[in-house]
Design brief:
4 strands; globular; alpha+beta; 4-stranded antiparallel sheet; 6 helices; 200 residues; 52% helix
């Protein structure tokens, strides 16, 4: 086996191990997320009504598992504990996202690995608050080259493409994720209201 083949094999094993660990942890994640309601929990959505900040139904999806929704909920509940750096490349992005909270880091790594796996397989979770920027990434997934590297408390992701529209979408989405990591649900609500105002 060449060094390149060995790296690919290790990558595959790492992904499977992360997803298995996340699956085993799913009940605990869901319980933790449901228990961590925000002070003065309230309802609102793009029009100011309908989004429950305690249970976050917008994190569910047409093809999202309870585990995946629970992971999203934990990250939104604990977003101040997330840190993120983004480098825009000529042909894509290189990002590093991490947390000094071990549980949050585990959830983060599982989520990122899971989403990369979904894109590669073409399985769009169609989460209700999902940005339409992801549409082209699923549609043209075969044009995306992805490399990941996990650390003790985070994950590096490098994604490149020869398709200029995909590169633009990768960079736009990286900015959206950074905004969510910095502002949590406020960033999501702002994006939803902007899309509603634009008639999207």
């Amino acid at each position: 086996m060449t060094s390149g083949e060995n790296t690919v094999a290790q990558f595959g094993l790492s992904i499977r191990a992360l997803l298995l660990a996340a699956a085993l942890a799913a009940p605990a994640l869901a319980e933790t997320a449901n228990a961590q309601t925000l002070p003065g929990g309230h309802m609102h959505g793009a029009d100011g009504t309908g989004h429950d900040m305690a249970t976050m139904p917008g994190l569910r999806g047409l093809d999202a598992s309870p585990q995946e929704s629970a992971e999203l909920q934990v990250m939104f509940m604990r977003f101040p504990g997330l840190s993120r750096e983004v480098e825009l490349l000529d042909d894509g992005i290189r990002t590093y996202t991490w947390s000094d909270d071990p549980m949050l880091a585990t959830v983060l790594i599982s989520h990122v690995a899971g989403m990369i796996g979904r894109v590669e397989e073409g399985r769009d979770p169609k989460v209700f608050i999902q940005s339409p920027t992801l549409d082209i990434l699923f549609e043209r997934r075969e044009t995306i080259n992805t490399e990941i590297e996990t650390t003790e408390n985070g994950i590096w992701v490098t994604q490149t493409s020869a398709d200029p529209e995909v590169v633009a979408a990768l960079q736009t989405h990286a900015g959206e994720v950074s905004d969510m990591a910095a502002r949590g649900m406020d960033a999501v609500h702002e994006m939803m209201m902007n899309r509603a105002a634009a008639g999207q």
